[in-house]
User: Fold these one by one.
Assistant:
Number 1:
Amino acid sequence: MDLVTVKGLSKRYGGIVALSEATFSARAGEVHALLGENGAGKSTFIQILSGAVRHDGGSILVDGQDYRPANPDAAQARGIAAVFQELSLIPDLSVEQNIWFRHEPRTFLRTVNRTEMRRKTLALLDKYNFPSLRPEQELRRLTLAERQIVEIAKGLAKDPRILILDEATSALPAREAEWLLKLTRQLAAEGRLVIFISHRMAEVRAIADRLTIFRNGSTIAVHEANAVSDNEIVTQMIGRHLDRLYPERIATATDRIALSVKGFSSGSRLSGVDFALREGEVLGVGGLQGHGQRELFQSLFGASKASGTVELWGKPVSIGNPRQALTGKDGIALVPEDRRGQGLLLTKSVRENLTLSVIKRFTENGLLSRQKEAALVKEMVDFLRIKAGTPEQLAGTLSGGNQQKVIFGKMLLTQARVLLLYDPTRGVDVGTKGEIFQLMRDLAAKGYAILFHSSDMPELVHVADRVLVMRNGGIAATLEGDRISEASILRAAMLESEAA
Amino acid sequence: MVMSVAERPVEMAQRPAEMKPAWQGIDWRGRALDRAPFLVACLMLALIVAIYGSLQSGVFSLDEINLDTAAAMTLMLAATGQTIVLVRGGIDLSIGGMISLGTVIAATRFTDDPSTVAMWTLVILALGFLIGAFNGLLISLLKLQPFLVTLATWSILNGVAMIILPTDGGSVPGWWVGFGYAQLFGLTSPVWMLLALLLFWWWFRATRVGVTIQATGSNEKSAFLSGVSITRVNVITYGLSGLFAAGAALYLTTQTGAGSPTIGKDYILPSVAAAVIGGVSLFGGRGHLAGTLIGAFVLTLIGNLVFVLHVSSYWQPVASGVILLLSVLASSVAEKAARNRVQ
């Protein structure tokens, strides 16, 4: 018998239909992948399953019994736990306090039993071979990847029969992602149901038994994983045939240097980085994660300190803070890694997010011109094809891909022509990924200069004109033309690490 | 055909290599930075005591400790409630109204009969909790700003206090006043209350409720996704704040022997200031009562210092303001240093 059976599930947010008559069924002991573009209804579906949101219509049966959780607690009581992409962790609590939050072992004084909590934490981390975490470390000191791992531990701490993994691998470096995939199989072998959401087809291929495809809030198809081709899946996800994910790479770089960096250093994380980014060029930055890519982008944007010389369009600049970096047509704009935390104000509208940092552009005699603002906003929404009900829709209610487009819009409105894109396709669906790559090439053709980091290596190989491979905070190699391949990037990134 | 689950080879997940060497070893500097505001508060208190002691004889005595604690205890009780609210990420201005209301009820209803006093004491404490809980309920259900809700209830409670007792007056029995000066092992009751407050905090912050309040202040959305009922958290948080304000009112009557419909406002902002000086974050999630109590001592002793310096008493609020600024500056510098280390 199926462990979960969903029929006719519906959910509306105001005028927007998030789910309409969706169906789903899955067995204990299987890894069941849930696929769909951003905005297809996957997030709403798992929010309903995990008790964060209540559905309007339809039925859910768990173990043959009606299931309609009033809150996340009720869901956990029925053995359902979710590892959210939008993490549910508390910054001011320690790793172990987060893992056991609200389920802490207690002493006779009703206080948290720290000894017991530590023992249980170590037992849990050991049982599933977690990457080393320090239980007493405060969460806000951890990186995104480390937090993701804590979130996974928190889900497993409840010993759930159904575990939902929402894009859990997207924040993880390669080795940890591989660990998670094996862990997922292990959990299924223990008789649990794992509902697995990922935009990486290779991962789905590697571990899923079956897959369900959502589109526009409805269930389009259910397949046995090895009885369907990648092409069929993608076609069903986007509802049309996707000709090609990567746009044609036409060299548009000129001889003009847009951004020149010499001897760029920051503590032990960046050591003497030199490179030049030309007008009309897409310059990739690759390498193993944690070798200085993040620091390079942050420092160039002025968000953290670094020494060395930076020239923009031939003029030396000192970039002290993001405001200085942003200024004017000769400035720099950044698409940050953590779009929810750093790039977007989730509780503000699409319009406000777009225009917040460029308020000067539509100010006349010290007064805001609403018409000018509306015109600019419309231009951006149309240009980027942002799917929002109205420009007043809150950014937090948009799908991941559309949120990313808003950040692109915000960046383009600053009129800066040197763009720093840090993993811009993270957690973005296939269709929108294609749009973003096309947009990057279009911008390059218009004379923008783009520095582009991606944690997904094929993106660098297929989109960038040149690739800088970083190792230990420096540039290990610069690859160009035919020499750009996944193998050559890996070789340059790992050669010395291997020897060490 | 698809392989059945049983046929599929299960590979045990292997532990990946250490993600980051920075995880090794104890981060002493990070810990010190975390506690920087508290350490600065301790330093300030030590400095003030040193100056005070060099100008006035007999400062380092049991009597002085008894006297200063007695002077600071009303603020300490009010600031204890405020600390819980601030850690939750809110603010409670209504404690001003609750303190006034508590003193006028006591001054008009207490008689020489201990059973009457006991009953009205319970009524005042219960009222404190219920009014606070009502604040919490309004904030949650109507999704209103804590600042505005408690500003409104402050005004309401103030008005009610005026209606009950329009001017300072009334009285409490002499034996009730005696409670404030009772001694045990050479320490007066306020010092014992101080120890009780610390004990309470040590216990409370380690309970699930305490952790949940802190977590909700740290990140409300995450707390909700983890199954926390935000309404319940608000009811308990503001209820406790009201309860401590009622306690502050009762204690205050042992010091003044009378009721006052306007006295409460003198404790609203100082209760926030004491907490902030002691390192409690106005953004929620961080702070300890020990810091708040030290902050309350700092604010109280500044008054003593101004007195022994023989300058106009108007210098006291000036000095308090400067100290508040210095503490805020210290925490901001420490915060920045800590953030730079994370990146």
Number 2:
Amino acid sequence: MSGWLVGLDAVLSPDAILMIVLGVGTGIVVGALPGLTATMAVALLLPVTFTLDPLPGMMLLVGVYGGTLYAGSIPAILLRAPGTPSAAATVIDGYPMTRQGKAGQALSISLVASVVGGLTGTVLLALFAPQLAGVALTFGPPEYFMVSVLALAVIASISAGKLSKGLVSGFLGVAIGLVGMDPIEGFPRFTFGTTELSAGIPFIAVLIGLFGVSEALTQIAGNRRRRGAERPPVGSFSLGRGWLRRLGPATGGSSLMGFLIGLLPGTGGDVASYFAYNETRRWSRKGSFGKGEPAGVASAESANSASTSGSMAPTLVLGIPGDSVTAILIGAITVHGLQPGPQLFEGAPDLVYGTMIGLVLMNLAMLPIGLLGIRLWPRLTAAPTTVLWPTVVLLSLVGAFALRLNLVDVAIALAAGALGFVLTRGGYPLAPMVIGLILGPMAESNLRLSLIISGGSLDWLARPIPIAVMAVIVAAIVLTKLSTRRAMATPAGTAAEETPKDRD
Amino acid sequence: MTAERRSDLGIAGATLALAAAIAATALTFPAGQQDGDPGAALLPLLLAAVLAVLGATRVLAPLVVRSAPPPPEADGGPEEEPGPVLPVLGMLAVGAVSVWAMSWVGFVLGAALLLVGGALLSGERRWSRIALLAVLVPPVVYALFMWAFELRLPTGPLEAVLL
């Protein structure tokens, strides 16, 4: 039976379907609450998947991821406060539409564009991922070393205007990954003689601390000044006449751009939506962008949805996280004793192909769930944050405990939360840290294996695939730098200053 | 000096100290046993060097980088300074005490302590809302994890009565 049929059979099970629906619903509720990011939502729900089979667990997290990304547009449109960093570009035209009494229309456009973007990205992922996995199966330690080191460089380079801060964050992640046995000879490093640290610092506890506890701490610090945001009138939810003709080209083009940008390790929906928004504005030559242009909302939302599928590609094909959320998805897979990478296409086709089919179902589920609650979701933006953030801290600590039923992991999550708070306060992005935490051990073991295989020589650096990988990623760094610079130099950059972008 | 720059300097100093500590510890690691293997110290030493350079870069950043023009202000208002640190330190302390207490008073009471402390530190002053939070959320979370996810949270006298 082909991988697709195995995946289809697995994903059509009642468990998987239920998890998709639950995930999308939870994701929409979470995303509609200002400040609760997709990364935080997925990190908080990760422990729930420990007792589920791998595919239903993955469906829950993927559903939350998609639902949160869509719903981040709700406070972005209504309150000018993006629910997630990926919705920052939606503010540019979404909020002016609200001021013109067209919030309902903007919310409808955002939902439809998110679904179209997500479906387009998933189709592209399904077309290319199996082929790319075939190529990745020929990779050896030298190729994996090059990919992991240079992926870290790309991640730092997209920390817009904060190159050295992104690098510090990434290499601090690598430093955390050093704790425990060295990967080749099992020599204990930085364990201070304790048995608890000999297996390393638990990656999931750090993730939960960085994205759950630290975000709550940051919000608690700022909570005392933010009180009672006004909820404006929503108006009609109709898309208006001729919407397909008006919004179709922007949505289609932005979906494609979003997918391609999501492919680059470290780029997320925020970079994708800014890039696509700017390109759409440049091509359309309309003067209404930034003043409530519906195509602006469609462009930003379709791009950030499509980027989720793009970021799944390096995760599934190479085991390298495309962004901070897919880093958590890697954690969800490894908890079940599976190692993400090209071998998974042969070894666990139900999970890999099931995930890709599940992404399609998730996007299809988002439309009815989003439409059913479209009048309810805006009310969530007024949730009392004074009780919300302590609850997030509690759920984070419970999640860390659930990992190994060990209070040491809870302490690690608290410590990681404090570290994340300090870094955020200093303007350091957190995503490079978690990706460094994953890539560091991978880079070290592959470098040392390469050296052992070659007897200490560096000849392997001159092999075709390492050279090609280096060229591709250098090109990616240059392109990403150029696109980020252009995106930030436009009115979109104005909105970027107001977003929680660097937290995710 | 802005709050962000103060935090930045603190992080840069900590990065330099971490680099020194990693290098000093890594120098004691044994050499690799296999032919061609540089040993367990290779990555820590490389990392220490990189962190030292990056830490120094952050310390010297305002001297070597010409200051960028101020960012555009939202609605003409001044750039928002980060909030006070005291509630955050309080929240961390409440979290640590609650977790420590959970091992002998159980999850429900420990979690209630965390929620009450957290809500007060977040600025909540309506006692009815705080009481509702403390009474409803911990048992719901406990029951959810216990029965739906089959994960046993710390038990104490209250859980023994409830179960």
